[in-house]
């Protein structure tokens, strides 16, 4: 059977299928908040937005459903999973525990090249934090990229491939909540101070302090969302993204 040609507005990487492309672009937009929590994901609408046909798009939605980024609703199709603080508390717990194991291992065996990566990532993180603080509430993709690179650099000396794969997936799943937390917490929380303290502990090879600071840093995201939801009198977790 001849493979379907890619639509003109879809650029496929070498060897990439349309289903893989649909999965990648839709996953990215859900994580970034371009597809809002609770949004109905109608196949025809998605086809118009992304220029990808029904079959690969449906395959992508099924895959995203297995990651719990999308909900498969009986007789109603698909919808973006809501931002649920109870679920995030569990997700964040798992992420913190995995992160601390990877960080401790990285500090224990990291060499000079690892230290250089941490220093470089810290420099970019400081720039992004400063820009965020003066950005009048703007959360840019540049800050999110710097944040992901910073935390990835910290654990990059860890020698467990499976541990890092699990850790990377948890980081992606937390991004939707992290973006909402930063938006709602601007003016209340300066992440630059938190990142600077973490870097100092890591480069000082203080495993106990570094893990404690990472725990507090990630937990602050959940705390900010919970506090702002309570302050706004939101009745449902989805309201934190309003």
Could you explain the architecture of this structure?
The chain is mainly α and 242 residues long. The chain folds into 2 domains: 18-80, Arc Repressor Mutant, subunit A (Orthogonal Bundle), CATH 1.10.10; 85-241, Up-down Bundle (Four Helix Bundle (Hemerythrin (Met), subunit A)), CATH 1.20.120. Helices cover 67% and strands 4% of the residues. The chain is built from 9 helices and 3 strands. It has a 3-stranded antiparallel sheet. Strand 2 (70-73) and strand 3 form a beta hairpin. Helix 4 packs across helix 7 (161-185) and helix 5 (112-133) packs antiparallel against helix 8 (191-203). It is globular and about 55 Å long.
Please sum up the structure shown.
The chain is mainly alpha-helical and 242 residues long. The chain is 67% helix and 4% strand.
């Amino acid at each position: 059977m001849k493979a379907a040609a890619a639509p003109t507005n879809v650029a496929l990487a070498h060897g990439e299928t349309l289903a893989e492309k649909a999965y990648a672009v839709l996953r990215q937009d859900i994580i970034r908040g371009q597809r809002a929590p609770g949004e109905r994901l109608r196949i025809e609408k998605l086809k118009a937005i992304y220029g990808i046909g029904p079959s690969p798009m449906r395959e992508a939605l099924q895959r995203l459903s297995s990651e719990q980024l999308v909900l498969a609703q009986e007789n109603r199709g698909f919808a973006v999973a809501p931002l649920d603080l109870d679920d995030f508390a569990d997700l964040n717990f798992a992420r913190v525990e995995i992160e601390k194991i990877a960080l401790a291992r990285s500090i224990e065996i990291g060499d000079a090249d690892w230290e250089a990566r941490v220093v470089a990532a810290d420099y970019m993180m400081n720039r992004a934090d400063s820009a965020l603080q003066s950005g009048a509430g703007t959360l840019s993709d540049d800050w999110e990229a710097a944040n992901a690179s910073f935390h990835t650099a910290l654990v990059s000396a860890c020698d467990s491939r499976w541990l890092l794969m699990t850790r990377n997936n948890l980081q992606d799943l937390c991004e939707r909540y992290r973006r909402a937390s930063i938006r709602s917490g601007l003016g209340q929380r300066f992440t630059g101070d938190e990142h600077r303290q973490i870097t100092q502990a890591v480069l000082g090879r203080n495993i106990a302090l570094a893990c404690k600071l990472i725990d507090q840093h990630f937990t602050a995201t959940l705390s900010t969302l919970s506090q702002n939801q309570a302050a706004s009198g939101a009745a449902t977790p989805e309201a934190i993204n309003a």
